[in-house]
Structures are given as C-alpha cells and as structure tokens.
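Here is one chain, start to finish.
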Amino acid sequence: MKNEIKTEPMDACQVFCPNLECSASGQTDQGNIKIHCRKRRRYRCTTCGKCFTERTGTMLEGLRKEPQLIVIVVTLLAWGCPLQAIVQAFGLDERTVSDWQGRAGKHCEKVHQDVIVQGRLDLIHVQADEIRAVRHEVVQMFVSTALAVMRPAVPPAVPYQNGQPKLLGQ
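Its structure:
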C-alpha cells in the first residue's frame, strides 16, 4: 500500500507574489493570487501572470523531501550535530545533507541582508553573536546571529498582578 502524505489545504489568501517586479509583490490577501495546480501546489499571480510554488524563495525550493525532515536536519546541524551522525540516523546521503546545510546558510544570509542590514525592523534591543568556523581546514566561515527583543524585557523576579508586571512602588 502506498504511503499517503497528508498535506495542508492550499490557501491563496496567505500567499504573496515572490516576483519583485510585480506591483503586488509581498502583499497577502489582495485577491491577486489564484490556485494554479493543486497536485503540484502551484499558485499564479493575476497581476503579473507568474506561476510559483509555496516553496519559491525559500531554502526548500526544488527539494522533494518532506519539509519537516529538512527542518529537523538543519536544526541538528545548527546545534552542532555531526553530519555523519545525521546521515546514519536518517539514512540520507552525505552530499544531500551538505547541500541542505549550504542552502540554509545562503537563505539565512539573504534574510539577514534583506531584513537586518536594510533596517526593516523596529528594534529596541539587539543581541548579536559571531562564530568563526573552519570547514575542511581550508574554508573559513563567519556565522553571525542576532536576537531581537521587540518589547522591553521584564526581569523574571518581577511579581505579576492580573497578568501584568507589578512595578516597584505600586
């Protein structure tokens, strides 16, 4: 018997056109996105006429494995799990895992460039870390991460009243 993969229903209201030249690019729930093909999970923008999938513009674009598996593998790599251990645990080819690692890195770099460097976030506090990594003793890579706190942090020892922090002197 065939393994049936349960997929979520397609919702054109939650998808936007990835074509940067389209006037509706980046806008959801505008009525310009129509379902083009349910079997291949493709959408079409009525503004520019371009077809695309839900994975267009992500590190998952063009990959055939389940997104959950890819996310688990990339998460394990990010936490320092050895590549060979992942290959053994999931029965994957080493080249596949290396490719996913490279894709994830390129996608993170693009997100960093488009969002952080371009200043498109309203940040109150940012904590940034940088790690130097050596791969195959030849290629040096620098990995940087940033953590944004979107509202002022409340010390954990502050007592709460009715779900709100009770400030000193109140």
